[in-house]
């Protein structure tokens, strides 16, 4: 029983939505003849207005410029760099570190402090009236 009532309610809602589909996106206005639904009934003032006739199809001749891609073969000089391997003789030296003990004489300078007397003069500013 519930299924029958729910299906009837769904059919009624679908019928109401189909009747209002002409006013899609138009809030607060009737849609008028400029609406795209084609069912022009009133001009929002209550008077019945006939739908506007469809415009006539017109043909006109125009010149159109089109470009066709054409491929041509052409010989072009290109510099190509190719690697060439060859054997080259060369010599090199390897330095290997060696350790040995030796005796050396070193001179080392060490700072030493000593007191020296000296005198100095101090200038003191004075204010005179």
Oligomer: single chain
Q: In percent terms, what proportion of residues is strand?
A: under 5%
Order of helices and strands: H
The share of residues in helices is 10-25%
Provide a count of the helices.
Answer: 1
For the biggest sheet, the summary is: none
Mean pLDDT figure: 80
Please give the number of β-strands: 0
N- to C-terminal separation? 124 Å
Which value, in Å, is the CA radius of gyration?
Answer: 55 Å
Which structural class do the helices and strands define? little secondary structure
- List unreliable stretches of 5+ residues: 20-24
Overall geometry comes to elongated
In short:
The protein is mostly loops and 129 residues long. It has 1 helix and no strands.
Describe what you observe in this structure:
This protein has 129 residues and is low in regular secondary structure. The longest helix is centred in the first third of the chain and has 18 residues, at 2-19. 14% of the residues lie in helices and 0% in strands.
Q: How are the SSEs ordered, and which strands pair?
A:
Layout: H1 2-19
Tags for this model:
14% helix; little secondary structure; 129 residues; single chain; elongated
């Amino acid at each position: 029983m519930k299924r029958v009532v729910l299906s009837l309610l769904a059919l009624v809602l679908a019928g109401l939505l189909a009747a209002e589909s002409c006013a899609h996106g138009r809030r607060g206005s009737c849609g008028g003849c400029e609406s795209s639904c084609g069912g022009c009934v009133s001009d929002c003032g209550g008077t019945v207005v006939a739908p506007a006739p469809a415009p006539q199809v017109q043909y006109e001749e125009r010149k159109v410029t089109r470009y066709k891609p054409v491929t041509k073969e052409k010989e072009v000089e290109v510099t190509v760099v190719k690697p060439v391997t060859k054997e080259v003789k060369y010599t090199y030296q390897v330095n290997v570190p060696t350790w040995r003990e030796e005796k050396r004489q070193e001179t080392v300078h060490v700072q030493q402090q000593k007191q020296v007397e000296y005198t100095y003069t101090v200038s003191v500013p004075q204010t005179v009236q």
